[in-house]
Design goal:
heterotrimer, A mainly alpha (45), B alpha/beta (721), C alpha+beta (80), A: 45 residues, mainly alpha, 1 helix, rod-shaped, C: 80 residues, alpha+beta, SH3 type barrels, six-stranded antiparallel β-sheet, globular
Chain lengths: 45, 721, 80
């Protein structure tokens, strides 16, 4: 039972971390506001 | 015609023409709402089935008065119409939604759009209002003169949509183009010069209409899309405008003058009847009261009072209900998981407790957004901005910042979302950045705890009330200068936009549209709670829970049995929990970081509370509860926590034995919470609305500000005492 | 009697005025021009905010608000 407990908690934790990592990394890749200026890495729409 | 892909039709029109109503009606519920890549301009698309069974993509472009490509909305509109948007297919046809009452101004937009070479159908909307007011417009004659189909419609009642669909079906075949002005020699020469320099020599892909934008608009956003670099293109654009100037046309004024000179003869006799009825409109009569120097302000203040009172009173019972529900769910899930204690703590204390604390705010947000939607749909919002503008203009904001900032006193998140109504990007940016300084309702539990424990017993209710007010006021006090500083120092790309605002005619709000908006903002909030908030709560829980060696519990129980054998099992459990917390990752971190907060008078337990509260302020109460060995289930009214706090003593260091909490510490904690950005959700919303850089800047900036203010409060307080 | 031009920020409420001169270099005014506020356009001052700024003007059946500093760059003459 204790084993199951640990496994479940680890799965949930890893899931949460993976979700946050994906979220933050995706944002970082765009890294701009799309304002359209030269310094801004995000293309203007 | 291109048949291998779905045809697309764009809707464009001035704000307040009923364009969105028409869009909702044509597409029904088959619509997707998103953002254009990288900007907060809302992108709405839907599917519209024409009478012949063909399905077309309908794009609802943002409402704009012109295509001068200054604001984000206008840029998006130009790019989509010219087929340069990566997010939307170039439209095969554009429907210009025109308000019959403002025909001239609305057709200016149509005329600009036609220069981009897209076939067009005109929908004369609000036909019923025009009829009621005795306006008669000969749509057949208009159609002849303009060269494109003109269909009278009433978006609210579906009138004219059949005719519109037929006209669109036919126009997709015949591809009619609106008559275009014949430009004078000077304009033609300047355009020719641009065409030669940019298209022939530099291979840019530009339509005629885009060349016009480059020529006529002082700082056209179209220029920023060119491959030609700024140092190379600027002299070309300047030269073209000089040519125009030498030809006798002021470049900034040329387009308006020439286009209206072209449009007016087409419209003058059609609009003659309109000119005859130049008396005061109903809207203007209402405004005699609502914009009055004295009465207008009183009505405004009264209205705001009702709105914010309702945020508390209407939402109160619902919030209790959600709180109760969350508690029940926690108990239920807890009972279910007794076999796996670690998972039980994760689910009950972490997920249900944390996400529940966030979801509790949903009713407040819905009530507030109901009023915002109501005020906007009726047209009052523009009046509120008009009345308040002077208060804000000195710091670079404008009247439209008022309601979002006021909303932030309930919660910064709806406040920040409400800034979408601010069209000036710089004012919007500043408003978002100062919104977290408005004291939101999540800070209230902290104030209530501290005031209840240290101020009310000593100084009485009057001083307690005053302190509560002061805590709400301190943020406002700092927000003004901060806004001014931001206004002065924001990087130049966050450009300021001129403040000209239409005061639209008052309208009876449509309940369906208000419902639609509430549904949208409510679902967004719930999705947020289920994703980001949930994940962050789990991580914080883990940091407060691990590591958890069983030897520690045994050691605590052994010492307790020796020193104080009278402890009840519950009290013993609290002690064990406290010991675990102390050496959890977060606890160790708290001890390491404590020296930073020492100048503000915090011990390591308060430091943990402060650190754990970064995802959400309310967490400090349950964290202090655990750390002071009471267990997590504590709320601010609990006398136990208050008395424990007032009895807490420094365990070691120079002040060992002295009380941890005295008046300066209590005040310092309150000031810290009043100013600090302790709200993961707000950081995430800022990141979504602006950019991650701004969110990080705002987080560190406000935290530093809070620290300085807390240290000052404590040091001055100790010096006085 | 010669008609004296005056600045839009100095006019009285409810009279009818005609635009004589506009500073098109001002971005606010450039925006108003695209909405049809051009020389010879008739307008009325309909409202003033509590501190006298901004003001609301009506022309061509629409009401626009603008700030006093921008209104000062528009010249009008009284016509009734």
């Amino acid at each position: 039972m204790q084993y199951l407990d640990t496994v479940l908690v680890v799965i949930v934790l890893l899931g949460a971390l993976a979700f946050l990592y994906r979220l933050f990394r995706r944002k970082k890749k765009s890294g701009g506001c799309g304002c359209g200026t030269e310094q801004c890495p995000t293309r203007k729409p | 015609m291109n048949t291998d892909r779905q045809l697309s039709v764009a809707l464009i029109g001035n704000p307040n023409t009923g364009k969105t109503s028409l869009f909702n009606m044509l597409t029904g519920l088959q619509q997707q709402v998103g953002n254009y890549a990288g900007v907060t301009v809302e992108k709405k698309t839907g599917t519209w089935t024409l009478p012949n069974g063909e399905r077309v993509d309908l794009i609802d472009l943002p409402g704009t008065y012109n295509l001068n490509a200054v604001s984000l909305d206008e840029r998006v509109a130009v790019d989509v119409l010219a087929g340069h948007s990566a997010d939307a297919a170039p439209p095969d046809l554009v429907i210009v939604v025109v308000d019959v009452e403002n025909l001239r101004r609305n057709l200016y937009l149509a005329s600009q759009a036609s220069e981009l070479g897209v076939p067009m159908v005109i929908a004369l909307n609000c036909w019923d209002v025009a009829e009621r007011k005795g306006l008669q417009i000969d749509s057949k004659l208009l159609e002849q003169r303009l060269g494109v189909p003109v269909v009278p419609t009433v978006a609210r009642t579906r009138r004219g949509t059949g005719a519109l669909a037929e006209a669109v079906t036919r126009a997709l075949e015949t591809r009619p183009i609106l008559v275009r002005p014949r430009w004078p020699e000077a304009v033609m020469e300047s355009l020719e010069y641009l065409r030669d320099e940019l298209i022939t020599q530099r291979g840019e892909a530009l339509r005629e209409g885009e060349l016009q934008r480059l020529l006529f608009d002082k700082r056209s956003a179209v220029a920023e899309r060119l491959k030609t670099t700024a140092p190379e293109r600027e002299p070309i654009l300047r030269r073209a405008r000089e040519k125009l100037h030498m030809g006798g046309y002021q470049p900034d004024a040329a387009e308006s003058l020439l286009r209206y000179r072209f449009l007016n003869p087409l419209l003058n006799d059609i609009l003659e009847r309109q000119a005859a009825m130049k008396k005061r409109s109903t809207s203007e009569s209402i405004d005699q009261l609502l914009l009055h120097r004295v009465w207008g302000l009183l009505v405004f203040v009264g209205m705001m009072y009702v709105v914010f009172q309702s945020v508390y009173t209407w939402a109160g019972p619902l919030m209790d209900l959600i709180e109760g529900g969350v508690g029940k769910l926690g108990d239920f899930a807890g009972g279910f998981l007794t076999a796996t204690p670690m998972l039980q703590s994760l689910v009950v204390d972490g997920v249900i407790g944390g996400v529940g604390a966030f979801l509790v705010f949903l009713p407040q947000i819905l009530v507030l957004f109901f009023f915002i939607a109501l005020l906007e749909e009726t047209g009052y919002m523009a009046r509120a901005a008009f009345l308040m503008d002077k208060l804000f203009s000195w710091s670079g904001l404008n009247g439209k910042s008022f309601v979002p900032l006021l909303s932030s006193f309930a919660c910064a998140i709806p406040g920040i979302l409400a800034t979408r109504t601010i069209s000036d990007p710089k004012a919007r940016c500043i408003t978002i950045l100062i919104a977290p300084l408005m004291s939101c309702s999540a800070r209230l539990p902290v104030y209530l705890l501290m005031i209840g424990a240290f101020i009310e017993p000593q100084y009485g209710a009057a001083i307690a009330g005053l302190t509560l007010f002061a805590m709400h006021f301190i943020g406002v006090l700092l927000a003004g200068p901060l806004a001014w500083l931001l206004h002065r120092s924001l990087p130049p790309y966050v450009t300021s936009q001129p403040f000209v605002m239409e005061l639209p005619h008052y309208r009876v709000p449509q309940l369906s549209r208000i419902g639609h908006r509430l549904y949208k903002c409510g679902s967004e909030f719930i999705i947020r709670a289920g994703t980001v908030i949930c994940a962050m709560t789990i991580v914080i829980w883990a940091l407060l829970y691990f590591p958890r060696p069983p030897e520690l519990a045994e050691a605590v129980e052994a010492t307790a049995a020796e020193t104080s054998p009278a402890l009840s099992p519950a009290q013993l459990e609290h002690r064990v929990n406290a010991a675990y917390l102390e050496q959890s990752f977060m606890g160790r971190f708290g001890r390491t970081v404590q020296p930073i907060f020492a100048p503000a008078g915090y011990d390591w337990k308060i430091t943990i509370g402060v650190l754990a509260s970064f995802p959400a302020r309310e967490i400090i109460i349950s964290t202090l509860g655990i750390t002071y060995a009471l267990g997590g289930e504590i709320d601010e009214g609990s006398d136990d926590l208050r008395t424990t706090l007032s009895k807490a003593k420094w365990e070691s260091g120079p002040r060992a034995g002295e009380a941890v909490f005295n008046l300066p510490v209590a005040l310092s904690i309150m000031v810290f919470f009043a100013l600090c950005m302790q709200c993961g959700a707000t950081v995430a919303v800022i990141a979504k609305e602006l950019h991650w850089g701004w969110a990080a800047g705002s987080f560190f900036g406000l935290t530093a500000l809070a620290w300085v203010a807390a240290v000052l409060t404590y040091q001055i307080g100790m010096w006085l005492a | 009697m010669p008609i004296l031009p005056m600045r839009l920020d100095r006019i009285k409420k409810d009279g009818l005025f005609r635009v004589t001169k506009l500073d098109s270099g001002n971005p606010c005014i450039a925006r108003l021009m695209t909405m049809g506020l051009l020389p010879d356009q008739e307008l009325r001052l309909t409202h003033e905010a509590p501190l006298g700024d901004p003001i609301a003007i009506e022309f061509n059946g629409c009401q626009m608000s603008l700030r006093i500093e921008d209104a000062a760059r528009i010249e009008v003459e009284a016509i009734g």
